[in-house]
Amino acid sequence: VWQDRTIASAKLRLLEYSAFLETQRDRETYKHLFVHIGPSNPGYNDPVLESIDVRQIYDKFSEKKGGLKELYEKGPHNAFFLVKFWADLSSDIEEGSGVFYGVSSQYSGTENITISVSTKVCSFGKQVVEKVETEYAHMEGGKYVFRIHRSPMCEYMINFIHKLKHLPEKYMMNSVLENFTILQVVSNRETQETLLCIAFVFEVSTSEHGAQYHVYRLVND
Amino acid sequence: CAVEQVPMRKRQLPASFWEEPKLT
Q1: Tens digits of residue pLDDT in A99-129
Q2: Which of A170, A180, A214, A216 to mutate against chain B (most B CBs within 10 Å)?
Q3: Nearest CA in chain A to B21
Q4: Residue B7 CB burial class (10 angstroms; 0-12, 13-18, ≥19)
Q5: DSSP bridge partners of A217
Q6: Mean of the per-residue pLDDT values for chain A?
Q7: Which residue, A93, A128, A113, A122, is CA-closest to A23?
Q8: In DSSP terms, which residues pair with A13 in a beta bridge?
Q9: Directed axis angle between helix A170-177 and helix A155-165, to 10°?
Q10: What ipTM did this prediction achieve?
Q11: Residues of B at the A interface (Cβ-Cβ below 8 Å)?
Q12: CA–CA distance, A84 with A97 (Å, rounded to integer)
């Protein structure tokens, strides 16, 4: 039931994903979520994910070695997803010292393996920065869980968010975001098998309810 | 230098791609 309705391949499922900033004020912690995919528990009555032809977005990600095209051709195709985020940039938290920018994510899988998580930021389809993290499995409730907890956001991303937030109009932010993408590839560290590949694209949220998203399967018909 | 890309609006994408969900 998960495979057609959530970000899940045959071997790995994304449980949660968030990019946030956090600060302490008057002994209380304030957290603002830029983007967030919360836990879900879909049933057979829920609709299956819509599809997008992967060729429509190849040029938005690196087309060099290790780019989306090469990865998709290697497969497995059921591991490829696109997430359209409507990011919440409405935070009024003051920038500066004492503010922590982080990314947390959680995955669950069927095998006791070590995963490698590569996050590539692309500007105009060209990779500008990459972070590679290694995570080990923890057995929880009969499944293997992988947790990347409060991974610090890189300087490039923090500066990017600052500049984006200071643009006067939302259409200007969306114009910048049109050429900004992130590719996350989770692979088995030993075998290099792709377990999950998520292409992120962005707009700015106009909602009062914070960050929103749509998930699509990437196909090649 | 940046290569000019086809705008996302001109690509074959589902209608929902442009519709921000009300709530998630």
Answers
A1: 999 999 999 999 999 999 999 999 999 999 9
A2: A214
A3: A212
A4: exposed
A5: A51, A81
A6: 94
A7: A93
A8: A8, A108
A9: 150
A10: 0.90
A11: 2-3, 5-8, 11-14, 16-17, 19-24
A12: 31
